[in-house]
Specification:
The protein is mainly α. The chain contains five helices and no strands. The longest helix is centred in the middle third of the chain and has 30 residues.
Length: about 120
């Protein structure tokens, strides 16, 4: 998948990787719906609020990782920073995410359920 851009999306290796990934995802879903204690209770996905928050979290994390990737490339190619320096410059982002998540977790434990 990483080399699909240079080899082409129609190559056999690319399609094999996509099909294996889809098969593994389908297997995971089937197994999780049939076991007694799944990692994620499937009935939770019927709750619109839970599903909305889950989708928003996935999109937010996707955006964060994409911006981190492209800002790292930009810092190296435009600003001329070394890979290590670019990584150190980007370090406050995961640090801030850690501090916010810990703080928000503490606040959430103080609130009553259902708020």
């Amino acid at each position: 998948m990483i080399r699909a851009d240079e080899l082409g999306w129609e190559t056999t290796s690319c399609w094999v990787a996509l099909c294996v990934g889809a098969a593994l995802l389908l297997t995971f879903v089937v197994v999780e719906t049939r076991i007694a204690e799944p990692l994620l209770e499937p009935s939770l996905l019927r709750n619109r609020v839970f599903s909305g928050v889950l989708i928003a979290a996935v999109l937010l994390n996707f955006a964060a990782y994409v911006s981190l990737t492209y800002s790292s490339i930009w810092m190296q190619s435009v600003l001329g920073l070394s890979p290590v320096t670019a990584g150190l410059v980007a370090l406050p982002m995961p640090g801030a995410a850690f501090v916010v998540s810990v703080s928000f977790g503490r606040v959430m434990h103080r609130l009553p359920p259902g708020r």
